[in-house]
Each structure stands twice: as structure tokens, then as C-alpha cells.
Amino acid sequence: MKRTLTVCPYCGTGCMFYLVSDNGRLVGVEPSSSHPVSRGGLCVKGWNAFAFVHHPERLTTPLIRKNGTLEPASWDEALDLVVARLTQIQRQHGADSVMFASSAKATNEENYLLMKLARAVFQTNNIDHCARLCHSSTVTGLAETFGSGAMTNTISCIDETDVIFVIGSNTTEQHPLIGSRIMNAVRSGTRLIVADNRRIRLARQADLHLRHTNGSDVPLLCGMMHVIIAEGLADTKFITTRTENYAALAESVADWTPERSAAETGLEAADIIAAARLYAGAERAMIFYSMGITQHSHGVDNVRCVASLAMLTGNIGRPGTGVNPLRGQNNVQGGCDMGALPDLYSGYQKVSDPENRQKFATAWRVPALPASPGLPLTRAMDAASEGKLFALFVMGENPLISDPDQHHARRALENLELLVVQDIFLTETAALAHVVLPAACYAEKEGTFTNTERRVQHLCKAVEPPGEAKTDGEIICAMAKKAGYDGMSYASQSEVMAEIASLTPSYGGISYDRLAPHGMPWPCPTPEHPGTPILHHEQFTRGRGHFSPVSHSLPREQTDADYPLVLTTGRTYFHWHTGTMTRRTHLLDREEPTSFLELHPDDAARLSIRHRDRLLVTSRRGSIQTEARVTTMVIPGVVFMPFHFAEGAANCLTNNVLDPESSIPEFKVCAVRLEKLP
């Protein structure tokens, strides 16, 4: 049997393992005992990451919709149709009438190529990916405060810290190997604060569990900062030498007394004081957060507060410290790094800067590149539903399930003149498409992924794609050629990475021959540079760290007599994203086969609901059916649903209101009512 070292295709932790194959078929997985992140361990999804690859529902040939039915077609027919229709729509409605949605499941090279296709070939900055739905708040907020929107420290820093503050992250289920590392640190004496109103597994290990109300992160963090300043716990030397705008921050939190913060969060003032003292009193403290912080209509403000808390206490730029946003998908960090964003080229270089445009235009051998930032993906869906966007090319994502307000998403997709979906399975979105292109999965191609700690890792091919399926990169380059552009012919993926390195300062020293065996973290500006495990060591990327005061905004949707409960959403241990891969993995689907809703026993008693009753859940946008789980995991007045299940789609209910700065939807708070079904 053959063993191929590669990277897990699930969360952003970036574990490496060996895919074991026999006669061209995958038969199992073996963890890498020497990998610095996974260290010989895997979560249940990683152990089963081979199981979906040979599933009988894999797409094997292009499909074109004819007379309302998707029918097999040749590659030439499918790609000729896609390029001709995109070109025709642009001639009729303008260059920005089309949109390209890249993928956090695709490699760095493939995200870069789709970004290049959109900008150099089709002359539009309408390129985005699912970071818009998970961490666009992070990119905006940390870029403003630190100068870089990435995790500042390494996962191994967990072993060196004194206090860990986890807020808005169910780490053991979303990033299991990081969660287990945190629990091991706690067993060795590290103190733990968890801010989450669900009683997640980490909360059971915590010194302090803050069960604050949904959408009250700003009052909680501002209350902690008030205590730190009032009690003289701030790191004045760090503030003076490394930061700016401190006076404005101090003034903005002056009124956030523990009592006021408690009133807004539902906590006890004593708990807010205790959290502030514990975090600020540590020599080294780390903050970890995820979508519980970002997915709000004020998500950027939440991130600003997290950054300010770290700077206020000098917990940045050293081992065992830092602000550490945990990326949800395997390559969402890389998708951002590669410029699959409407306003940025690779390496976060602004498209509005004439020098940047000239640099990329020269390298790509085109006369000019578009200057105006494109549409964020969430606003593109709005434009499509309003008849203002006419074509959408989707690579490796399933917006019909992942976007908020499913009826709105369906209306947008059905309103398009052209919907092209490139994927490994016929997803719910692909079932609506005019053209479906069969793609290779992670086990069937070469490239790189960048994990949540900025570690760029080499993905190796273990088996051949099924049928006529091609890699995403091959498909993109073939489209460019059919569109008449000859600047996307590469002999290997390493050539693509060489082009990325030549244009992207943070990846300037990264090449395939430097990535064995376990990758390296950016920034890595030159071929001699060893990579940068910890950011902002002597100075921030922007120079001085910037304190950004915020004001408190309530969630945009409030409960009332008709919709008296708050719904929040998230992941489960056994499934991932929209379930495209995990729900085609027998063991994982067996463990968590159906949608469910958690509600507190007090709410269940009031509504005469018992455990496992069938429920109708209704928001102002729609209704779904699901199963009740009566549990003290949630607090009274709050219910929780995972978003993996198409037949009980939580995003049929969620609110499409967006953060005005990052355009991220408010997935974490909407108002619902429950009815017990007969």
C-alpha cells in the first residue's frame, strides 16, 4: 500500500496525515506523528477524511442544463458555453455584471488563479469567497488595529501561556486538535476563561465561565477594559512605546463600569471584575475567538475590542500571547492571502492603488486592470436578487445552504442569467446551475493550504480524480485559454506558487522545495527568511498598534411576543460546513444524522416540549422542521441549531442584515418561535 503525506481538508487547524491507498483507491488515514500541530493525533473528521473521496455521487462529467435538466456534456462544450455566456453578459451589461466566488476548500494556487481569471481576463474585481461569511470582520478589524488581519501567534504557544481567554469559539468541536491542546494546557496549570452562553466542553474546564447574552460582546470586553484601567492593571510601558490613540480608548470605556456591563450582558459584576483581573494579571495571556465574535452586524467592533484588550495588557508580539482568530475552513486564510477578495490583490495589496494595479498588470501582461473594488459576496447576492448581477461562477462553495435567509439566497441564484458551479458533488447550489463542472478533491491534486496560524503546507496527490473530473486549477486555466488569454499556462503548481511569490511580499520566500515536511509561516519575504511564527514582535505591521474605540450596538433583530426566543447557530463535532463531504461519510453521518435544536428545560416546560419532539421553528423569514434537544447547554431564552443540514436548514431562518464595514451577516442572533408538531 502507498502512503501520501498531505493536509486535512476540514477546519483551519491544518493537521497533516498520510492517505493510505491500495491499487488507486484510498483505504485509510494515518496521522503524522512528527507534525507540530497534530502531533500524531486527529479528530474524528480527520480519521475519516478518505471516506467521501470515492463516493458514488462524485461528479465525473460536465453537465449542461437542457430543457430544464442537467445533461452530460464534453469539456469543450461546457467551457465554450461558460466563456461565451460570460462574455455575452458582460457585453450587454458591463464588466461588473458577472461575479466569481472562490473557495476556502481550494488550494492557494487555485484561489490565486481564479482571482487572476476574474481580474486579468474578465476585467472585474467582483471576486470574493466564504471568508465574507466567517472572518471578514477579522480582516477589517485587525488590519485597522494591528495592520494584519491574521492570527498573531502559533498553536504551540498554547503550551507557553499562563491564561487563555476563549470567546465566541466552541473550540473542541470546531477546531478539535486546538481544543484538546487547550484542555491539556489547563490540566498542566494554565488558567482558562470561557465567554460563551452555551455550556461547551471547554466551559466545563474553565476557571471562569461567562454566559453573556448573545450580541453583548462589546459590553463585556469594554467592562473588562474599564476594570483593567481603573485598577492600574494596564501595561503602561507597552501602551506608551507601542500604541497610539490610548486616551480615546480610555475615555470610551470610562462609563463601562462592571455594573453597567453586567446589566447589558446578564452577568454578575463580580464575574466581569474577576475575568479582567485574571486576564490582565497574567504575564502571558492568549485570546482565541471565532465566529461567535465575527458573525454579527457589529462584528468589526467586536474584533476591535478584542485587539484593544490585548494591547491594553501588552499581550501581543511575544510567545504565549496574542490575538488568535481561528479560521473555520481548511484554506480560508489562504483564500484571503491570495486576493480572493473584492478590494485586494494577493498579500492584501489594495486594488485602488495605481502602483499595485500597474505591478499586477505588467506581470499578467494586460494593458490595465479595473480600479474600483468589486462587490462583497453577500452584497452580490443582494444584487442578483434585485436583477443587478447577471452571472455567478461558484467554485467549491454551497451558498444555498451557507448564506443567511435561504429564501433570499434561492431567489438570488434563480434570478441569474448564468449560474456555473464547479464542485465535487451535486450540491444544493449545483442542482440549480446552468452548467456544472466536475472538480478534483484535495486527495487528487497538488498545491498548498495555509492554516489558521499562517503555516503554508504542501498538499500532495494520492489518487486520480474520478471519470473526467479535473482540478480547479486546470479548469480555470482552460477557461482563460478559451477566452483568448495566453498568460495562464503552467507546467506545474510550483510554477503558480513562483508567480505568487514574485507578486506577494509575505509569500516572497515561499517555494515548494522549502515546504517539506511541515510547511512554514508567512511573512516569509525572501528565500533565505525562515518564516515568522509570531507577528508584531518589535513593532506592529502598521507601525504602532491603534486603539479603536467603539460604541455598543444591539443586534439588529430583537425578540417580541411573536418571536420570543433568540436563535444562534454553529457547528457540531461530527459535521463540517454544509455537510457536502461529512454527510457522505457513513460513520460521521451515522453519529449525527439529522438536524436538531437545543432549548433550555425552562423554555421546554413552558412550551410543553419534550426531548426529541418534532418542532416547527419559525423566524420572520421562514420555517423549518427539526428535532428538540432539551438541555442546559443553552441558557433560558436562547436556542441553538447547527447549520449543516439541508433538510433542516438553520439558514432558512437567519437574518441577512450585514455589518456595514465588513459585509458579514448576523448569523448569531435572530428571533424565532417554536411550535410542537403532532
What key attributes describe this structure?
678 residues, alpha/beta, Rossmann fold, Barwin-like endoglucanases, 3 domains, 6-stranded mixed sheet
Tell me about this structure.
With 678 residues, the protein is α/β, with parallel strands linked by helices. It folds into three domains: 63-132 and 330-511, Rossmann fold, CATH 3.40.50; 152-326, Dimethylsulfoxide Reductase, domain 2 (3-Layer(aba) Sandwich), CATH 3.40.228; 565-676, Barwin-like endoglucanases (Beta Barrel). It has 24 helices and 28 strands. The strands form seven sheets. The protein has a seven-stranded mixed β-sheet with strand order 5-4-18-17-16-6-7, with helices on both faces. The chain has a six-stranded mixed β-sheet with strand order 24-26-25-28-23-27. Strands 10-9-8-12-13 form a five-stranded parallel β-sheet, with helices on both faces. Strand 19 (447-450) and strand 20 form a beta hairpin. Helix 3 packs across helix 22 and helix 18 crosses helix 20 (406-414). The longest helix is centred in the N-terminal third of the chain and has 19 residues, at 75-93. The radius of gyration is 24 Å and the shape is globular. The termini are far apart. The model has no long low-confidence stretch (mean pLDDT 96).
Summarize, please.
It is built from 24 helices and 28 strands. By secondary structure, it is an alpha/beta fold. The radius of gyration is 24 Å and the shape is globular.
Strand-helix topology:
Blueprint: E1 2-7, E2 16-22, E3 25-31, H1 44-47, E4 63-66, E5 69-72, H2 75-93, E6 98-101, H3 108-121, E7 127-128, H4 131-134, H5 136-145, E8 163-167, H6 171-174, H7 176-187, E9 191-195, H8 201-204, E10 208-210, H9 217-230, H10 236-242, E11 243-244, H11 246-253, H12 258-265, H13 269-280, E12 285-289, H14 291-294, H15 299-312, E13 323-325, H16 332-337, E14 344-345, E15 349-350, H17 354-364, H18 377-385, E16 391-395, H19 399-402, H20 406-414, E17 418-423, E18 435-438, E19 447-450, E20 455-459, H21 472-482, H22 493-503, E21 520-521, E22 545-546, E23 565-570, H23 586-591, E24 596-599, H24 601-606, E25 614-619, E26 623-630, E27 638-642, E28 670-676
Helix pairs in contact: 2-21, 3-21, 3-22, 5-15, 9-12, 9-13, 9-15, 12-13, 18-20
